[in-house]
Amino acid sequence: MSKIQLILLNYSRLIVTLLIGFTIISSCSSTRNAHHSTVVSNKGLKDYYQSYFPIGVAVSPHALYSDESGLIKLNFNSLTPENDMKMETIHPKELVYNWKTADAIVAYAQQNNMKVRGHTLIWHNQVPDWIFKDAKTGKQVSKEVLLQRIKEHITQVVNHFKGKVYAWDVVNEAISDNPKEFYRNSKYFEICREEFIFKAFQWAHEADPNAVLFYNDYNEISATKRAKIITLINKLKASRIPINAVGLQSHWAVDQPSKEQLEATLNDFSKLGLKLQITELDISVYPKEHQAREKREEDFDTSFSAAKEEKQMEQFKMCFGLFRKYKEYISGVSFWNISDRQSWLDNFPVQNRKDYPLLFDRNLVHKKAYWEVVKF
Ligand code: GLA
């Protein structure tokens, strides 16, 4: 036997041995899977919804390195920084940008193959006062100065995350809840009227032409408010402003929306020819209230009773049924917070009233509602 023949023989022996070994190992593991339900627990929300839309969650950087991390990685393929890209955090002073915590969220998303939604460039809340004031006189700035500052903010922030953040909530909550007013009476509006909205989209697009640009708002299920949001979007489109999508925050409750209301909402928005996303989903176990108020006697029973659990389960089931029905238009569904351990609803509309608005309980265990959401 020549030297070459000997080498070839040894190689084929090695390959046969490896193949036999591999077959034994894989048959063992499939037997294991057949006997136990490991397959089910290895699947997360994002896997059930793989052929529908990405499933996202709003996070703090702290959560990513806590015991919630496993749950985040298993269930979600999109992240929204809960607070770390808001202007008060990321741009607290005129010449100071704080990238650290937002960068940490983006890095985690990249390591784990997740998308990132940027939230939010222009919002009347969690905004530092400096942007509206002249540093020397303390007086309110002119429209020209404010627009220039908005431009600078948007350009810096969008540019910093270019190629890493695929979508931006460019303007958040600019429409009024008051049926008699169109725009919200914010400092931005007081100084610039509607121009700040139009310009914000233009500047975001200039900074990253590939980013998907959203107008994001709440109480989109109200026919009156929805009509105003749609009017604004049509106005932006008619002015050739680069808006690509509408964010429906979806801070809902066990008593609303009704199925008819949600269907009408999705149907109306789907006609705009823009993508839709459910951007901040949570379903409070208490009847919906829009205004903060004092605690009353009936607020003291904060147990997650069987009745609350049942109602919430039905509501989640109904919502996701309709999200699936409108999958052609919906490009993402994101939850606002991870589990019932912590939610902004624990303090709104009533301070210190525990709520349970999500699909995982305080021990990070799937709630009954979770199983209804993935049953289809
Ligand atoms: C709004 C904002 C979010 C968040 C929630 C709840 O919906 O868009 O950033 O602050 O309120 O707190």
Name the structural class: alpha/beta
**Fraction in helix:** 40-55%
Number of strands: 9
Bound molecules: alpha-D-galactopyranose
Q: What is the number of independent domains?
A: 2
- Low-pLDDT residue spans: 14-39
CATH class of the largest domain: Alpha Beta
CATH architecture of the largest domain: Alpha-Beta Barrel
The number of distinct helices, counting runs of at least 4 residues, comes to 14
Rounded mean pLDDT score: 92
Overall, the morphology is: globular
The topology string of helices and strands comes to: HHHEHHEHHEHEHHEHEEHEHEH
CATH superfamily heading of the largest domain: Glycosidases
Using only CA atoms, what is the Rg?
25 Å
Q: Spatial order of the strands in the main sheet? A: 1-2-3-4-5-6-8-9
The major pleated sheet works out as: 8 strands, parallel, barrel
**In angstroms, what separates the terminal alpha carbons?**
63 Å
CATH topology description of the largest domain: TIM Barrel
- Beta-strand proportion: 5-15%
